[in-house]
């Protein structure tokens, strides 16, 4: 793919067809050959045919980058592609930097910065929801929402500035009440967007999940069921899992970054003790703890320790081994922790997994996800900009409550306006732009 003012000219130097590419209509596919015309005078033939190709010509501004663009579709195989690429570079093109095509699209006004970032999110999507969210942003869902908020802010800023410049004709008497009402609405919108970042992070990065339980409760069997293959060794011997096993699992359209830990119990075995300590450490920072209970055995001091640990965390209790006689029921667990959902499963017979899937979606996505009318922030940079804008809008409210002069309102409104501009790219510098696009892969 070649993009830029001389894209068609460069392609014409190596293309042979019925017409020159500069003479064909825009957005057409043209059959011909890629040829190397720079043959030594000692050669009898004047040119060397490299490949038979289809060349797409797209004239500015109706292209992805907003520039003239030529795409050469040659035969597959690394050698021929390499030969064509070398020929393109030899005839005047330069290699694209990571993300340069998307960067040019941004700089030429074909997309805003949130849409540009969505390009790499689409590429890196690892589950259904992440892809849908990224495509929604690529279509401009974040851009539209941010621009709507910025328009409200700039309207009030312009009114205040105009009134201060021309107080004889424009009065600000009582305007603080109008501004306060609008500022409160804007604050609510910003808080909704910030709150969506939690869902956005889960959608994009997955749920950091730790499986805990005492030895031989069925943790490794559960991991194997969720993973769909034998990821962990399963035996009847307690303490088989001593180290931490990690696996990314797709569950109901979401990614669970699952950590299977050593069984938690008092032990004198040094290696097993290290595994137990790691289990407790991972559980401290987990988004979700899945506590597997062996329902065929009575609760003991090890279970009590785990229950105390998960009581104030986002957790799910799985009563495993429901396929055999059980001595532990959901009521026994509810007596200990009434605020944690409890599901009966059989890892051996793969029963109850759908209930687990539904419960995880309910806990982390708060119901069904809709990408038609809901915007999800899945970018830390965007979330930080929203937090800064929120703080500036709260300052506007404080200035109104403190009966400050109107120019104080204007200062904080402009700060909020600029912060939101960081999301769409209206207020970012060259260094930040370069940093963002450096994370893209080549050719995007």
Strand tally: 11
- Determine the N-to-C terminus distance: 10 Å
**What are the low-pLDDT stretches, counting only 5+ consecutive residues below 50?**
231-243
Spatial shape: flat
Binned strand content? 5-15%
Which strand order does the major sheet show?
Answer: 7-8-6-9-10-11
Rounded to an integer, what's the Rg over CA atoms? 30 Å
Briefly note the structural class of the backbone.
Answer: alpha/beta
Quick check: average pLDDT? 82
- Give helix and strand order, one letter per element, not per position: EHEEEEHHHHHHEHEEHEHEHEHHHH
Number of helices: 15
Main sheet properties: 6 strands, mixed
**Helical residue percent?**
40-55%
Care to describe what's here?
This protein has 444 residues and is α/β, with parallel strands linked by helices. The chain has helices at 7-12, 78-90, 100-107, 113-124, 128-138, 141-165, 175-205, 219-227, 270-284, 301-310, 330-336, 353-365, 380-401, 406-424, 430-437; strands at residues 2-3, 15-17, 28-36, 48-58, 69-73, 207-212, 245-251, 254-260, 288-294, 315-320, 342-344. It has a six-stranded mixed sheet with strand order 7-8-6-9-10-11, sandwiched between helices. A five-stranded antiparallel sheet has the order 1-5-4-3-2. Helix 4 runs antiparallel to helix 5 (128-138), helix 6 runs antiparallel to helix 14 (406-424) and helix 7 packs antiparallel against helix 13 (380-401).
């Amino acid at each position: 793919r070649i993009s830029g003012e001389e894209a068609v000219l460069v392609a014409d130097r190596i293309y042979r067809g019925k017409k020159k590419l500069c003479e064909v209509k825009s957005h057409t596919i043209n059959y011909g050959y890629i040829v190397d015309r720079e043959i030594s005078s000692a050669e009898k033939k004047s040119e060397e045919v490299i490949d038979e190709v289809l060349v797409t010509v797209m004239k500015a501004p109706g292209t992805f980058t907003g520039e003239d663009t030529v795409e050469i579709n040659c035969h597959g195989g690394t050698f021929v592609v390499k030969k064509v690429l070398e020929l393109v570079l030899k005839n005047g093109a330069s290699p694209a930097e990571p993300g340069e095509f998307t960067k040019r699209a941004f700089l030429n006004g074909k997309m805003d910065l949130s849409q540009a970032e969505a390009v790499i999110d689409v590429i890196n999507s690892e589950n259904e929801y992440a892809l849908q969210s990224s495509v929604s942003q690529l279509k401009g869902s974040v851009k539209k929402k941010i621009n709507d908020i910025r328009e409200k802010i700039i309207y009030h800023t312009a009114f205040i500035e105009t009134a201060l410049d021309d107080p004889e004709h424009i009065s600000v008497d009582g305007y603080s009440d109008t501004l306060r009402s609008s500022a409160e609405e804007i604050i609510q919108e910003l808080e909704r967007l910030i709150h969506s970042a939690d869902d956005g992070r889960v959608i994009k990065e997955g749920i950091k999940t730790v499986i805990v339980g005492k030895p031989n409760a069925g943790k490794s069997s559960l991991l194997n069921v969720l993973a769909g293959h034998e990821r962990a060794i399963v035996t009847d011997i307690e303490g088989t899992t001593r180290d931490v096993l990690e696996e990314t699992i797709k569950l109901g359209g979401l990614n669970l970054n699952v950590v299977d830990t050593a069984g938690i119990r008092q032990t004198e075995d040094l290696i097993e003790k290290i595994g137990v300590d790691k289990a407790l450490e991972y559980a401290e920072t987990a988004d979700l703890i899945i506590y597997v209970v062996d329902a065929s055995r009575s609760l003991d001091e090890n279970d009590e320790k785990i229950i105390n640990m998960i009581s104030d965390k986002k957790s799910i209790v799985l009563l495993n081994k429901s396929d055999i006689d059980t001595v532990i029921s959901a009521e026994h667990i509810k007596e200990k922790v009434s605020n944690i959902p409890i599901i009966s499963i059989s890892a051996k017979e793969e029963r109850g997994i759908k209930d687990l899937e539904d419960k995880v979606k309910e806990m982390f996505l708060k119901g069904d996800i809709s990408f038609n009318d809901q915007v999800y922030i899945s970018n830390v940079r965007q979330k930080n900009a929203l937090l800064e804008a929120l703080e500036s809008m709260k300052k506007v409210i404080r200035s109104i409550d403190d009966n400050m002069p109107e120019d104080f309102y204007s200062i904080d409104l402009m700060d909020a306006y600029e912060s939101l501009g960081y999301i769409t790219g209206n207020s970012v510098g060259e260094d930040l732009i370069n940093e963002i696009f450096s994370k893209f892969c080549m050719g995007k």
